[in-house]
Amino acid sequence: MSRQLISLKKRGEIWHYSYTSPTGDRVRRSSRTTDKNLATQLASKEYNECWRVFKLGERPEYYWQEAVVQWLEEKPKRKQDRNMIYGLRWLDRYLGNKKLNEIDRNLIKFIQTEKAKEGVKNRTINAILQQIRVILRAAVEWDWLDKCPAIKLLPEPKRRIRWLTESEEMRLMQELPEHLKAIVQFAILTGLRMSNITQLKWSQIDLPKKLAWVNSDESKTGNSIGIPLNDKAIEVIITQFGKHKENVFTYKGKPVRIANTKAFRNALSRAGIKDFRFHDLRHTWATRHIMSGTPLYVLQELGGWSKTDTVRKYAHLSVEHLHSHVNNVQLFGTKLAQH
Questions:
Q1: Measuring CA to CA, which of 91, 152, 281, 322 is 20 to 30 A from 38?
Q2: pLDDT tens digits for range 91-124
Q3: Phi then psi dihedrals of residue 94, to 5 deg
């Protein structure tokens, strides 16, 4: 192959190559190596494969990076998920220059081991493994890959359900700054996720109908969610009148972007509340519903959950439906029974 067909340039310490594909497209890639000879070999191999696909009709071999870009294009909401993007960037060091058919169980096991060296929990490792799996499964659907390798997740402890007690809530409200107090109260009263509260706009509220809603592009499930507002939630909304023409919750005249701030965590600390996250306010809302007798199917609809299993984790907190059956078991032949 003539060197003129491939262009090599050094950027910093890394060699980059480019060539024109049979379809006329200009392809540019990083060789990820400081060795010029190795970079030339990688470029030549890819160039030859490209022409072989064009001439012989073979299926092209796609790279991990191409699959990630394609998946993010199909799932634009995921671009806003900081944890997802962080995980994909972390994986790039191991998979960035890999073809999809080179990602096998041994490589995945190696990645799992490397992540474990960081001293993280199994849940964090599983998040990385799930990111690999979802990309590879999508590649199978696109016919970019024949089969996704089996990826076994590590065992995780059952997730605890943490909610605010009455006394904890009272102490927390005394410590929160005013702008966060309104957000926390609204979270407890509606069960909305943090991003749905901080991004809530006046156009999403109908006070006469006592209703708010989350648009489908802002919902975790991709479905629109209607939120009936109780009187207390409406009182919180009213306190925000006139502060901003578009966003409901603000701080010093600007929309609040995130509520799980240092100020929130410091308020928890001053209130003596441990092992509590902002998302636990949603657990607080769900727990109080269950303990007040709200049926699981109603809670599922109120919370916008798509799966029943997600709601069933609260089922053990409700015993109202069991009271009518407890007298089915009695003692016989005892003074207690006679009494």
A1: 91
A2: 999 998 899 999 999 999 999 999 999 988 898 8
A3: -105, -30
Q: Which member of 99, 115, 171, 282 is catalytic?
A: 282
Per the CB < 8 A criterion, the answer to whether 222 and 74 are in contact is no
Contacts for 14-19: CB closer than 8 Å, 24+ residues apart: 15/39, 17/42, 17/43, 19/43, 19/47, 19/50
How far apart (Å, rounded) are the C-alpha atoms in residues 306 and 300?
Answer: 8
> Does residue 16 have an active-site annotation?
no
339 catalytic? Reply is no
Q: Which amino acid is at 290?
A: I
The Cα 311–Cα 334 span in angstroms is 42
CA 167 to chain centre: 31
Question: Is residue 79 a contact partner of residue 70, using CB atoms and an 8 Å limit?
Answer: no
**Catalytic site residue from 220, 243, 288, 313:** 220
163 is a catalytic site residue = no
Contact 296, 308 (CB under 8 A): yes
Backbone angles phi, psi at 46, to 5 degrees: -65, -40
